[in-house]
Automatic annotation (TrEMBL), chain A:
The chain crosses the membrane at residues 21-49, 86-107, 119-140, 168-192, 213-235, 278-298. This is ABC transporter permease. Its main location: membrane. CDD domains: TM_PBP2 (cd06261). Belongs to the binding-protein-dependent transport system permease family. One of its GO terms (biological process) is transmembrane transport. GO terms for cellular component: plasma membrane. Gene3D superfamilies: MetI-like. Keywords: Cell membrane, Membrane, Transmembrane, Transmembrane helix, Transport.
TrEMBL record, chain B:
The lineage of its organism: Bacteria, Bacillati, Actinomycetota, Actinomycetes, Streptosporangiales. One of its GO terms (cellular component) is plasma membrane. The chain crosses the membrane at residues 7-27, 65-89, 101-123, 135-155, 176-198, 234-255. InterPro entries: MetI-like (IPR000515), MetI-like_sf (IPR035906). This is ABC transporter permease. Residues 66-255 form the ABC transmembrane type-1 domain. Keywords: Cell membrane, Membrane, Transmembrane, Transmembrane helix, Transport. It is found in: Cell membrane. It holds the Pfam family BPD_transp_1. Belongs to the binding-protein-dependent transport system permease family. It is a multi-pass membrane protein. GO terms for biological process: transmembrane transport.
């Protein structure tokens, strides 16, 4: 540093004037750029290389080309995990929007207790996956859980919930919705408040009923929010891991192994680093294709206007 | 509004249904296990019982995990506030070579999902000797693309005139940043702090991968690992849950307005 300063002074003001803005600029953005790019682009490239090798997590292996990718195409366990992930996503993504939108519409009205309702519905969003998982295991416990006690009190048979292979995945969807429906509510609420009042009033003056106004004005205005939420929630669903890890760990009878959980098992319990990286990349590509497809579809629909 | 009751008819039960699990968690954390496991279960403890809290605070390394998480979260929040606001300002206001490339590179990282990074990051941490240290838990949280983007958008929305006036008065860039810009950025900084607090406090996957020894666990890893060992000791588990969750709920209630504003902001523009 001192040497730099000296040469700078020696060379007089001109080169310094040209260099300084760049140094200042990098001084501001350099540290954050280093951390963010260093901890993602670099590992992402490494993961790509790993996916072409048969490395063990603890010891390097050799280059195997596309063998890992060929293997994952006929891995029955991965196929099962993919199926579970898809089933979960198909229930979770539309579910969160179908629950979120009406609640947002109701909360957009000037009614009493609005802040109370909003707080209650949003608070589960800040609860961690670990706490949510432990709480779900407790409340839904087939023997001791309060939900089964309440069901029994109402004369309904006790359920297995997370411990019943035929119910576990559906129960996970419910728990996820509890924990995350706050996001669609808040996003829709913000979008609703951005709709110009004149638009709604004009429609009403033209004689449109409440339902007609909703279909012809409100819903199209909410389109950007919906596109965002579909993409966001889909990515969220495809990458489901935390809640599975803290509740079922893929059980019972492997009925809740989802892709990222399977990948975690492969890489960190069986130490198949290369194969795990290949699974990760395959999922990455699927995620990109799905979100790109959703964006393309949304743009195409917008084109005429 | 004349007819409010149809809304209340839907929203009231739904809100209570959403709040009920957390209320039940709080109640059972003060209930003796015998009453929790009784049938029919008690809905209210016969007396306030601190057994669960006592067990958690004395038998497990819980206080240690709490301290670990506190440290990780504090480092994450401070680093985020410093690094992201500096970078956000740099990208919003300064002109320099490589600015576009650096910004695009940062934004591109948003697309790379965690699961792609897990394995190589573990290997990097291992070769740097960071496995089983708290640094492994906070390193990914020093700065995020979201934080840089948030601060950049905020600085872009500020009028330039104030800064220019200070520049003309002879203040250098860093002086302008600290004396003029940063005090104006308080709402954005508050939002960023809450988000980072939430993310770092609740993070599970990084510490799970990088930390194996019990005394270095973060709260989330400790809770999860010990939930298995303490199966059916519900009051202790719920006490642990309450201690891990209520700082967040408190932070959320205090910062609710900022928080929700940013959620929707990042939602629509992100």
């Amino acid at each position: 540093m001192a040497a730099d300063a000296l040469t700078m002074r020696g060379r007089r003001a001109r080169p310094r004037v040209r260099l300084m803005p760049h140094l200042t600029g990098w001084g501001f953005v350099g540290p954050a750029t280093l951390v963010i790019v260093g901890l993602s682009i670099f590992p992402a490239v490494w993961a790509l290389i790993l996916s072409l090798r048969d490395d063990n997590l603890l010891a390097p292996g050799s280059f195997v080309g596309l063998q890992n990718y060929r293997d994952l195409l006929d891995d029955p366990d991965l196929r099962a995990a993919t199926l579970h992930t898809l089933l979960y996503s198909v229930l979770y993504v539309p579910g969160s929007l179908i629950i979120g939108l009406p609640i947002a519409l109701a909360l957009n009205r000037p009614i009493r207790f609005r802040a109370f309702y909003r707080t209650c519905l949003f608070v589960p969003y800040v609860v961690s996956a670990a706490a949510t998982g432990i709480l779900a295991n407790f409340i839904l416990d087939p023997q001791f859980g309060i939900v089964n006690d309440l069901l029994a009190g109402a004369g309904i048979a006790r359920q297995g919930f997370l411990q019943d292979p035929s119910q576990a995945l559906l129960t996970l969807v419910m728990v996820s919705l509890w924990g995350s429906v706050g996001l669609p509510i808040v996003v829709y609420l913000a979008a609703l408040q951005d709709i110009p009042r004149e638009l709604l009033e004009a429609a009403r003056v033209d004689g449109a009923g409440a339902f007609r106004v909703f279909r012809a004005v409100t819903l199209p205005q909410l389109r950007p929010a919906t596109v965002f939420l579909v993409i966001w929630q889909t990515i969220d669903a495809l990458q489901l891991f935390d809640l599975v890890y803290t509740t079922t760990k893929g059980q019972p009878l492997d009925s809740t192994t989802v892709i990222v959980f399977y990948l975690y098992q492969q890489a960190f319990q069986l130490f198949h680093a290369g194969y795990g990286a290949a699974v990760a990349y395959a999922l990455f590509v699927v995620t990109l294709v799905v979100s790109g497809g959703a964006l393309w579809y949304a743009r195409r629909g917008e084109a005429p206007s | 509004m004349k007819r409010q009751w149809p809304y209340h008819l839907v929203l009231m039960p739904l809100s209570l249904l959403f709040a009920a699990p957390l209320v039940w968690m709080l109640i059972t954390s003060f209930m003796p296990d015998a009453e929790i496991n009784a049938f029919p279960p008690h809905l209210w403890p016969s007396h306030i019982d601190f057994g669960g809290y006592l067990k958690v605070l004395t038998e497990d390394s819980y206080p240690r995990w709490f301290g670990n998480t506190l440290l990780v979260t504090a480092v994450a929040v401070v680093a985020h506030l410093v690094l992201c606001s500096l970078a956000g300002y740099g990208f919003a206001r300064l002109r320099f070579r490589g600015r576009g490339v650096a910004f695009v590179a940062i934004m591109a990282t948003v697309m790379v999902p965690t699961q792609v990074l897990m394995i190589p990051t573990f290997l990097v941490f291992k070769s740097l000797g960071l496995i089983d240290t708290l640094a492994a838990a906070f390193l990914p949280w020093l700065a995020t693309a979201f934080g840089v983007f948030l601060m950049r958008q905020f600085f872009l929305s500020l009028p330039r005139e104030l800064e220019e006036a200070a520049r003309i008065d002879g203040c250098n860039r860093l002086g302008v940043f600290f004396r003029v810009v940063l005090p104006l950025a308080r709402p954005a900084l508050a939002t960023l702090a809450v988000f980072t607090f939430l993310g770092a406090w609740n993070d599970l996957i990084w510490p799970l991968i990088a930390i194996n020894s019990e005394e270095t666990y973060t709260l989330q890893v400790g809770l999860t690992t010990f939930a298995g060992a303490r199966h059916t000791q519900w009051s202790a588990l719920m006490a642990g849950n309450v201690l891990a969750t209520f700082p967040l709920i408190a932070a959320f209630l205090v910062a609710q307005r900022h928080f929700i504003a940013t959620m929707s902001f990042s939602g629509l523009k992100g």
